[in-house]
Every structure is written in C-alpha cells, then in structure tokens.
Amino acid sequence: MKTYIVDDELVSIYLTKHLLIEEGFSDDITTFLSAEEALTGLLQNITENMPQVIFLDLNMPGMNGWEFLDELTSYKEQLPGCCQIYILTSSLDTSDMAKSKKYASVGGFIHKPIDKADIQEIMAHLKQMSNKSQ
Amino acid sequence: MEGSRNNNIINHMMRYSLDMICTIDEAGRFIQVSESCRQILGYNPQELQGHVAHDFIPPKDRRTILEFSQIVSRGNTDYSFENCYIKKNGQEIPLYWSVVWSAEENFFFCIVREATAQKVENNEIQKSAELHRVLVEQESDMLALLDVFSNYLYVAGASLKNLGYHPNQLIGVNLFELIHPEDIDKVQEAVAFTRRSQALVKLTEYRYKTADGQWQWQEATLSNQLENPAIKAIVVSCQDITVRKHSQLQLTRSEQRFRSLFANNPDMVLYQDEAGTIMDANPSFIAFIKKQKIEVTSRLLYAFLPEKAALLFKEKLKEAFNGSKVNFEVDVNFREQGHKVLSVVKIPLVVEDKVVAVHAIIKDITLETQAQRIIEQQANRLNTILESITDAFFTLDKNWNFTFINHEFERLLQMDRQKLIGENIWASFPTEITQKLYNQYQHAAQTGETIHFDIYLETFKSWYDIKVYSSEEGLSVYFQDVTERINAEKELERLSLIARKTTNGVVITDAQGLTEWVNEGFTNMTGYSLAEIAGKKPGAILQGPDTDPVTVERISAKLKAGQPFTIEILNYKKTGEKFWINKEITPILNQAGDIFKFIAVQNDITEKKQAELELKKLSLVASRTSHGVVIMDTECHIEWVNEGFTRMFGYTLSEVIGKDPKEFLEGPNTDKAEVQQMREKLTEAVPFNVILMVYRKNGESFWVSIDFSPVFDKEGILTQFIAIQKDITLRKEAEANLVKMSQDLYKHNRDLQQFTYIISHNLRSPVANAIGLTRLLTSLSKESKDFDTSLVYLKDTVIQMDQVLKDINQILSIRDRKNVQEKKGISLFTICHQALIDLTKPLRQCNAQVQVDINKETEVQAYRAYLYSIFHNLLTNAIKYRSEKRALQIIIKATRVPDGRTCITFSDNGSGFDRIKVGDNAFKLYKRFHPQIEGKGIGLFLVKTHVEAMNGQIEVSSQVDVGTSFTIYLS
Questions:
Q1: Which residue in B793, B928, B931 is closest to A11 by CB distance?
Q2: Pairwise CB contact (< 8 Å): B760 & A91
Q3: pLDDT digits (tens, 9 = 90+) for B347-370
Q4: What is the 3-state secondary structure (H, E, C) of A72-117?
Q5: Rounded to an integer, what distance in angstroms lies between the CA atom of residue B281 and that of residue B270?
Q6: Cys bridge to B362: B268, B335, B549, B958, which one at CB 3.0-4.6 A?
Q7: pTM score
Q8: With contacts defined as CB-CB under 8 Å, which chain B residues touch A18?
Q9: Got the DSSP string for B613-624?
Q10: Which residue in chain A has the smallest CA separation from B797?
C-alpha cells in the first residue's frame, strides 16, 4: 500500500522506512521533510494514487502535524477517504494523544521508535478497515 | 317848812292828780310816777319806776319820743306831743305829754293826760268815771255793781261772754247764787268787810258759776262806793283767774310733785348755789352720803367728794350757772362707799332770766355701768366671736331682713353691711341669686332643718358653700367662697382623668417615698398593679441588678433635697424584662411649705436608650478607628468626619464640612468610571463598596477602599450616608505585586511548562531515534550498507542528545545566575565591538556591512556575559538568515528613551520571516522558521532569556525578504 512518511528528521525517516520495508508493510513509501511538501504531494494525487497510510510526525518547524491534519480536514470531501493517518511522535505528552482522537482520519497514535509490534497492529487494523468498507 | 309843805303839795298832787305826773331820766327811765298812772295806764307806779318809757310805747310811736328827747335836751325847755301808750291791759291809749327838761336836776318833768279824743270817749262813760277809776285801779275782766243786798245792778266786762252771760241776764241776780257753795263764806266775809271799810278789799280765789253750770275760778276786788254819788254801789271787779288758778294749782301740784319727786327720787338730787353750797338735798343723797340733812345743807358739795371729782364738779357747776344744762359721768372713789360711777346732770334753775340755782341730779350708775360694761364686753366678745368666724355670717329675722352681718360677709361680697342691716335680703340681691337661694332658705325656715349646699352665683362669679341654720329668731347663714376649692376639685378631676388615662406612668408617693397611687399607664408599663406596689418604694420593686447604683444614689439625694428633677434609670418589669425609663419627679408641698407628696411621671425610653448606647459605641468606634469615617447627608454633603479621616486625607472637619467629597478627594488618576458607578450606587441607597485612587491634601495619591452604608430613620426614609475609608495602598501594592508575581509566576510556569514540553520533546526525539537505531543495528549485519548508515545516524543522534542537554544546562544556568550576580554598568560599545571582532571571519565571508551607532559612554546595567551573548546571537542569526539576493547589512543603534532606559536596535536586511505567522513563537525555544537553514532554534530564545534576566525587554519585527529588526530595552 501506498504510504507517506512526514517527518522533519532524516534519521527518523530512515528508521521508519527501514522498518516498514523489513516488515513488508509497504514497498511504495514516499517521504516528505515538511508537512507543506506532503500536502502539496497529496493534492497532486488527489484523484488517483491516494496513499492509504500516512505516518505523521507532530513536531515540525513551519507547519506542524496538527496544522497538517487541520488542512487535511478541509479537503475532506475532495479526498476520497480511506486514508488512515497514524501519528508517529516522540512526544510523551498525554494531551497529544487525547488530541489525536479528535481527528477522524487518525487511525492511531504511535510512540517513536516504531517497532514490529506497532506495524503489525497497524496492518491488522488496516485489514479490518478494508473488510468493513467492503 | 315851806319846803316840806311844798313836798306835801307835790305828794298830794302826785297822789291825787288826775293827770299822770312823772319824771323821766335822761336815759328814758321813769324816776317817779304819780298814782294816776293806775288810772291812765293801768300800771302802778312801782311797775313803771325804773323802767324805760319806751317799753310802753308801741314800736310805731317810739320814734317820736326819740325826737322829743333830742329836741328837749337841745335846750328847748318845754315840749308837748302826743303818743300812744300801751296800758297794762294791752289797750292803746293816746296820751298828751307836756315835758320840761330840768337841767340842774337832770330829768324830764312830764305831765301826761289822756288825749282829747279819748277824753271824749271817756266822757261818755262819765257816769262810770269813778267806776273806771276804780276799774283802772284794779284790772278786771268783769265789773259789777252790787246793791246792799248783793244783787247785781250792773254787769259789764269782756269775760261776761266767757262766762256765757249776757249782761242783762244777771241784773237782779244775787251774787251768792253764782258763788260756789264752798266759797260762799269767804265771799260773804269779803262783802261784809267791804261794807265796813273804804279800802279796796281783795277777794281771792273763789269759784263763780258759769252759764252752763261750770265753775270758774275768780278773784275780785271789792270797793265800797255806796257813798259815791256816781256809783252808789259796791263795785266788784273780778278776774278770771282760771289760768292763774290752774297755774297755781299746777304750780302747787308741780311743787308737790316736785317735792315728792325730790324727796322720793331714788337718784340723788340737790340744789346748789353758785358757790356750790348745797341748799337742799334729797333723802337719797343724804342716805348716800351717809350723813344727816343738817350736816349736808349749807355745806359745800365738794366737801363730800374726793379732790379730783370735786374739781370736775366745780367746773360743771360753773357751766351750769352759765345757763347750759350739763351732763356728765364720773368715776369717783369715795372713802366709804368705794368706787362708784355717777351720772350727773346739772340743770340751771332759771327764774326770770337769771340762774338762781343749779339742780343737780346724781345717779349712782355704778351697777348699771358695771352691767353695761359687762354687757359691752360680752357684746364685744360676741362680736369678736362673730367677727372671727372665718366664714361669712349673717342672720335674718322672720321677715328676711338682715339682723347681723359680719366682716367676712362684707369682704367676700364687697357690700357695705351698714347699708344692708335691716334690709330685706331678697331686695338686696339680683334675681339670679334670689331664685337660686329662696327655695333653700325657705325650706330651712319652714322645716327647721339645717341645709348645706354648694352653689355657683353668676353675679359674683364664684362658688359658695352655704350652711343655713334655722332658729327662733330667723335664719343663721354661714357661707364660704369655695371657688378655689371647687376649681381645685375640677382640676383634680381633670388631672386624675389625665393621670389615669395617660400612657405615661404616674406614681404618687408620700413624703417617705412609699407608693400611694399608680395609674393604668404605670401598670401597663411595669406589669405591677397598684395593689402590688402600694405602700412600697417604687425603687425597691422596679430596680434590679443592672440598675446603676450611682443613679439610685442620686435619686435618693435629690428626693431629700426636695427639688424637682429628671433622671434616666434602668428598671425591671414584673416579667423580669429590663427597660429604660425617663422619670420626672416633682415634690408637692403643703401649705406649710413641707414636702408631703412626690409625683413621678415616667416614660419608656428603652428604644431611645438603646439607640443612644448604640450611638455611643458607634461614635467611640468612629472616633477611635484608624479608618476614615465620614457622615454625609442625602446630598452627599459632609456632616462629620473622624480623626482617622483627617489623618488619612489631611483635611480637618472644619475644612470639609458641608462640601461634597468629590471636590477634593478625586484627582487625575482616579478612575472616572468607578466614580460614576459609585454615584449611581449612592442614588440606589444600598450598601456597597468601591475602590478608588484618591488624593490627599498634599497631593499624594493613594488607594482607598470605601464602604458606603445608607442610614434610614424610623419611617425608612434615607437620612444620611456613612462612608468608611480604608487605606489600601499597601494592600493594593501588595496585590499589584501579587498580581505581578502571580503573573510572573504564571508566565514562568507557563514558560517552564513549555520549556519542559519542548525539552522533553527535543530530548526524547533523539533518544527515540537512538533506540530505534540500536534496535535496527542489532538486526542488520555488520557488512550491510544500512549498518554503517545506521551507525552514523546513531552517532549523530547521540551527539544531538548531548547538545540538548548542554542547551538545557546553559539555559537553566542563565535563569539561576539572575538571582546570584549583580549587574554592573557595562559599556555597550565595548561589548558590541568585541562580538563583532569575534565574528570577523563569518562576517567577511558573507561580505557583511555593519554599522554601529553607539555612544562610547553609553552604559547599561547588565551582565557582561549576557550582553555579549545577545550581540553574538543576534549577529550569528543575521549572518545565518541573510538574504541570498543581497549583501548583508546590519545596523546597530543605541539610544536613550525618556523613562531612563537604553534602547538598542539591531536591524538587518536578511530574509526575514512571516512575523504574523510566527507570532509568539519568535522567541520560543526550538522554534525554527527556516527549515532549510541549519539551526537549533534556541538562539532567539537565549537572547530573550538574557534580556529578561537583566530586566529588559525585547521585541522583533520582520518582513519576509526585507529584513528583521530587534528592539531591546535595557536599564
């Protein structure tokens, strides 16, 4: 499945990407170093090639994760949906977790570093979602 | 011889001449008169001699004699005239006078004869000339001629008529037929004697029969004229001596009477002559004097009297001898008889105009006098008693006439009792009184009952209390003016009504303070009835533990002093409830001026007292409190301020009284909105609080918290405002500090939170990465490319972690140092320059141009290190975020601002950033706005921290692709 990774740190991207590939989660992974770039990319592929999964970091300079989500919400009708966003952050702040639940498109909240268990969980979740929609 | 012969002749002449011959002296008195005067005038010579000739002349003729005397005395030797003389029997007879004055012998020699006219008449009676002569010789009322047998031959005379006889009636009648039997002998004898003699025979006192059978007393003169040829009869001339007889009889009788009186008079009677000799004294006198008659007569009265009395008697005797009747009383102390009171009357005895003796009648009035005196005394006593009756008193007889009126009556009714005595009561007073009183008096008179009543008389405008007693003589009436009493009674009724009904408590006590009476009001007020408190002292019942003993003492003292006074005292009701009363105590004096009652009027002043106490407390509070207390009226004019206000604001009461506070308390910094709100709240008249900045008299401003309380009276009407001011400057400052502190704290906290958040994230992030990488490394083979990449990443990550820790340390140490180090005056220019020198290389590399506009003297209070750090960071940033399109230009300026701080501006023409978008994040930690450019995002954070650590301020403005400008304020 098509996956986006949005994070301002190269190291973090590297780690996430590596693990996703290793777990066989996805082979189509696009990375963005800023939320603005990710948004641009999304909108370009709006009718086709929508990513199914977006891994989103929260703490980024410029547009941060929340702002990205807000932007995304405004394009909701345009986006065909079924785009699950998983927040991937090093933040331990409980309020971030609570806030994430407010966004419908957010499928989950993962603490960095992402590990195998997380990925499998996501995969299961995704399968569930697709079963539902079908 | 010849002389004597002549005398004889003269004498003869004098005796027998028919003409009257007389001598008259120069004074007109007869010296000698001849016998013929009897015939002519009817008088005998003795009767004429010595008397004034005039006396016999009728008044109308007296004049001629006067003339005559004058003429003759002038020298004419002889004169003749006619006049009339009055005969003894009253007849007037004309006389012819021949007068010769003899100067040597000093008398008139006169020959008088009957005038010719008369003589003619006389001649007619020639026949009885002799008769007339005889007649003239003796006066008579009747003349009769008797024959030898005593029969009447002729009767004539005036008295014939009186006797009732006609003259002719008697002719031939025998004399003795007319004589009273008892007197016949006497008459016979007289007649017989007459016949025998030639002389005139006087027959005295016989009774003659009148025509109607009565007897008349007569006397007669008989004359034998039988031998007289002209008469030839016995001439009897008789006179009615009835009167004389009567008088004689009377005289005799009166003499006898007198004698009898004299002798029998119980009073003492005596006769005195001018010398005082007792000529006669009656038996009573003699008995009184206790002497014999012989001893008394011819003795001086004074011999029997004590000296003092004798003098008085002498005096009175003299008076009596002057012709006046003397009347006097005298007290005489006789030696033998003792003290006697004598009433003496001395009557002069006048005989022929001469006082010959004094008739003294002496009455022993000792007893009478004594009795009189006793009676007088008793009368006086009675009068005194009657007069002393304090009531007005009068008595009426059965006819309603006043018989006695006392002085009080006069005084009360203002009527003269002298006028009223004897007057009828009903006539003496107006109808009104009569109407009202008549029935009462009548009732008393008829029933004999004693009547007692009160009555109001309009006439006198007074009330009278009248008692009427009936007696035999009539009515006795006592009355008093009781107007005052009635009025007093009415007053008392009114007062007692008031006293009973008033809601005030009224207590009447006796002089000792024991209760005699209380009114309803008292019972209502205290709960005690009269029965419960009678005979006890009010204080004992009403006072209780909380009653002030000093007040009780004062009451005691004032009661003794006997003055009216007012006092407030705490009393207890019967229920035990306490209440305050205001007592007015008045002593009542009796007529002697001693206190015999006290009256106390009391009202419940509990409320008032409580209000007073409240007020005292409040005023105490108000005066003592350090807070300012202001009392204003409803118009917000100051009525009163306390000391606290004066201390707080500096204005005294006199300076602010009557003014509105806003005139002087508000100032430039006073919040007008608050003031407005305050005014509005005042109109609502509710309690509220306001906090204002106000100004003292000296212009100082300070914060004050004012509590307003409206004051209402009993009806709920607003009367005043009370404002209590508290100086809250300190509080305000404290608050402000607190606010500032909490703001700081909040900010601090927030910063800290943020800091914490950021730190945790920035620290966490590399840690998370490190964990991931190490996990990855373990799964990678050492030979794979990924393994090396991962290892490099790991190294970077760990270094990054370390850096974060360093940053933390640095930041924290800045914060800490703030409290430890002291700022110093640092030269801006020097520091700036140093930073520039240290960054020479990077500056040259980018061809930067730096313009420094700092005064070399400018100093700021700062930490050298911080100041350096600031410059360094800002320069570094300017270099890092320069624009590619143009060469970097930096301008550094330092200026002084009005509040004393130094303003440093640091501007560049770099790439700038979206100021608005960045917002507050400009100086936030790890916030970066240029992702492409290398940077941790702590530079500006540090700058800000440094600036604030030196109590400065920093601001930034920026425009994308134009440049950025920082403004720093340092003190």
A1: B793
A2: yes
A3: 888 888 888 888 888 888 888 778
A4: HHHCCCCCCCCCEEEEEECCCCHHHHHHHCCCCCEEEEEECCCCHH
A5: 4
A6: B268
A7: 0.37
A8: 776, 786
A9: HHHHHHHHHHHH
A10: A11
